[in-house]
Every structure is written in structure tokens, then in C-alpha cells.
Amino acid sequence: DEFGADTVWAFQLKATFENTPTPSFLIDALLHMVRAALKTKHGVKKVDVEMLLNVVDEERDNMERKLRAAGFSYYPVDYALAIYVYTLPEPAVFHLINGLLRSPDRKTATGISPGLKACMPFIK
């Protein structure tokens, strides 16, 4: 439309998100997303997989302690870690996701790009 909105693509993105199962483990969602993103083009920033795995491993106990101390022991550690990982400057997960969202290849004839679909478990 005149404002650059793509209502059909937004609907497809929302449907894909809603139909994506919530992953059991953060690390599975991250690895799936990063591996798929490595196959993309258009300058999407790549993520250092080894660094990413190390950050998740190193921060898990720390995040659990923080949640308990703040009275949020009921909150899933993986969800808190996902938020934490998304905000880090390195490994730049937010650059990867945002790059795929803005990529000229973000949509295909049948919906959203494979790279963006691979992000859905992490986003969810």
C-alpha cells in the first residue's frame, strides 16, 4: 500500500509464528536458526556458533540465580536466556533476525523465507 505495509506478508508471518511449535530447549532453537542463516545472502550478519554455545552454557547458572534472587524462580530459565542472548552485541543474534526480517528475500511465492522460518522457534 502507500505506506509500504505488506498486509499479506504480515499475515503469513503471523500464521507461521502461531503454527511454529515452541521448542523444548533454547539451544535447539538457536542452532536451527543459526545454521539456516548461514545459508542466506544479502549481508545478513553471521553469528559465531561456538561463542553462542559458550554464552548459553556459561550464563545458564547465573541466570537461574538471578531469577531466584528476584523472586522469579517459576520463570523458565531458557526464556530469560533467550532475552539475554538477543540483547548481546556479540554474538549478534538480533542482527541476524533483524537482517532476515529486512532482507529483500524475506518473502517467497509461498510465504516467508526459509531463513526467517528458521528463526521462528527462537522468536517464539
Descriptive notes:
With about 120 residues, the protein is mostly helical. Helices cover about 60% and strands about 5% of the residues. The chain is built from six helices and two strands; from the N terminus they run H-H-H-H-H-E-E-H. The chain has helices spanning about 5-20, 25-35, 50-70, 75-85, 95-100, 115-124, and strands at about 105-110, 110. The chain has a two-stranded antiparallel sheet with strand order 1-2. It is globular and about 50 Å long. The mean pLDDT is about 85.
Question: How large is the radius of gyration?
Answer: 16 Å
Q: State the total count of DSSP E strands.
A: 2
Read across the widest sheet, the strand sequence of neighbours is: 1-2
In DSSP terms (H or I, runs of 4 or more residues), the helix count works out at: 6
Helix content: 55-70%
Q: What global shape is seen?
A: globular
Low-confidence stretches: none
